[in-house]
C-alpha cells in the first residue's frame, strides 16, 4: 500500500515539475522527452514546374537557411491547426491558398534535431498556382533542385514526393489540385517525372498515359481553340467532367 502511494507521489511530482530546458547561448536544448513538431511540405506550380515553398529560418539552429515551414504542436491544438499556423507564421501562406492536403507520415529519428529529441508529423499542402507569395522569407525552389536543407527536411520532401506520386488518380482531390482544371498529356508525364526523380524512384512508363487518360471517365477531351503558333493541329487538352470553362 505504502509503495503504491509513494509511486503515485513520484508520478504526480513528475507532472507538476516539467523537465527544464537548458540554454546554451542562443540554442535552447529541449528536454529528453520528445516534442512534437508539425512540418508542412508546400508545393506549388510555378513556371510550368513543381516547386517547394520554403521559409528562411529566423532562429538558431540554422538561422538564415531555407527550410520547410514547421512549428511545435501546442497543447490543445490539432495537427491541421498547427499546419495552418506553420504556413502562415513561417511563409505567409493563407488557408485560402490551399487546394488540397495529403498526410506524409511521421519522422522519428531521435537525432533529427540537435536541440533534443523531436518527432515530426508531416503534411503535404498543394497550393493554388495563382497564389501571391509576397512574404520576404519565402523561397520557391524547383522540386528537383533543392538546396541543402536543415534537419531531415530533404528526406521529408523525398518521401512527400513519393506519397503524392502514389496518390495520383487515387486521391482525386490531390490529383485535381496538382494538375489544375485543364491540362495536356505532356503535363501529366512531366509531373510524374518530377515526383519520381524527387522521390529517388524510377520514372513511370509514359507510353500509355494518353490511353489511360482517354479511358478515365472523370476526364473529357477538349481542343484548344488557339493553335500554338497559328499553324498545325491544336493540342488536345483534358478537363474534368463537369468543370466549368472560363
- Please state roughly what percent of the residues sit in beta strands, choosing from under 5%, 5-15%, 15-25%, 25-35%, 35-45% or over 45%: 25-35%
Calculate the terminal CA-CA distance, rounded to whole Å. 76 Å
Q: How many DSSP-defined strands?
A: 12
Biggest sheet statistics: 7 strands, mixed
- Helix fraction bin: 25-40%
> Counting H and I runs of at least 4 residues, what is the number of helices?
6
Report the mean per-residue pLDDT as an integer: 87
Q: Structural class, please?
A: alpha+beta
Which word captures the global form?
A: elongated
Ranges where pLDDT stays below 50 over 5 or more residues in a row are 1-19
Output the helix-strand order. Answer: HEEEEEEHEEEHHEHHEE
Oligomerization category of the chains in this entry: single chain
The radius of gyration computed from the alpha-carbon positions, rounded to a whole number of angstroms, is 23 Å
What does this structure look like?
The protein is 30% helix and 28% strand. With 246 residues, the protein is an alpha+beta fold. The strands form 3 sheets. Strands 3, 4, 5, 6, 7, 8 and 9 form a 7-stranded mixed beta sheet that branches. The chain has a 3-stranded antiparallel beta sheet with strand order 10-12-11. Helix 3 (153-167) runs antiparallel to helix 5 (185-199). The longest helix is centred in the first third of the chain and has 15 residues, at 2-16. The chain starts with a helix and ends in a 6-residue tail after the last strand. 25% of the residues are buried. The model is unreliable at 1-19 (pLDDT under 50).
